[in-house]
Write a structure and sequence with these properties.
single chain, elongated, 3-stranded antiparallel sheet, mainly beta, about 170 residues, 2 helices
C-alpha cells in the first residue's frame, strides 16, 4: 500500500501526514501517558535511542513539568530514515497537590518514567468576610438665618397702541 493512502479502522484515510519529515510542525512530539496510582502521579515518556544523562532535562515550573530532549543523529550512511532528530520539548500539567521534593525520574528500555507523590491540596479558594462599618449619622447643620427677601419688581403696565385702540 502506498503512503498516499492507509487503511485505518475500516476507513480509508486520504493521506498520512504524520510521516512527512518535510513538515516539521506536524512532526511527532514526545509521546507521553500519565496516570494516578493511589497517591503517586506517574508520567511515562517514549524516548528511545537517547542518552538520558546528556540529552534529557526535566524542570518543574509552578504546576507544569517540562521535558526537553535532544536526539542526536549518528553519522552513518543511511538509505532511508523515518527517525526524528533535533530538539523536542513537552509540557505536562501536574495535578494539584504534587509535592516537589518527591519528584523522581528513571530511564529504562527507552521509557522515561517520572513519579511524584500527590498530597492533600490546600484550598485555593476561600471566602472573604465583609466587615460592615458602623453607620455614620450626618451631623445636624445649622440652618442659615433668613435674609430679607428683595421686593419683586413692579410689573409694567400694558401699553395700548393708539392705532389699535379704537378698533374692535
Amino acid at each position: 500500500m502506498s503512503t498516499s493512502t492507509k487503511f485505518r479502522g475500516g476507513a480509508l484515510a486520504p493521506f498520512d501526514w504524520t510521516n512527512l519529515s518535510w513538515l516539521p510542525m506536524l512532526a511527532p512530539t514526545i509521546r507521553v501517558e500519565d496516570y494516578l496510582d493511589g497517591d503517586r502521579y506517574v508520567v511515562r515518556a517514549e524516548l528511545p535511542g537517547i542518552d538520558p544523562t546528556k540529552d534529557v532535562r526535566i524542570t518543574r515550573t509552578g504546576d507544569t513539568l517540562r521535558l526537553d530532549v535532544v536526539r542526536r543523529e549518528s553519522h552513518t550512511d543511511k538509505v532511508h530514515s523515518e527517525f526524528h532528530y533535533g530538539s523536542f520539548s513537552r509540557l505536562v500539567p501536574l495535578p494539584a497537590g504534587v509535592r516537589e521534593e518527591t519528584i523522581t525520574a528513571r530511564y529504562a528500555n527507552g521509557i522515561l518514567e517520572i513519579t511524584a507523590t500527590v498530597g492533600q491540596t490546600e484550598p485555593t479558594a476561600r471566602e472573604i468576610p465583609i466587615t460592615v462599618a458602623p453607620a455614620v449619622k450626618p451631623e445636624p447643620t445649622a440652618k442659615p438665618e433668613p435674609t430679607a427677601k428683595p421686593e419683586p419688581a413692579a410689573k409694567p403696565e400694558p401699553t395700548v397702541k393708539a392705532a389699535h385702540a379704537g378698533r374692535r
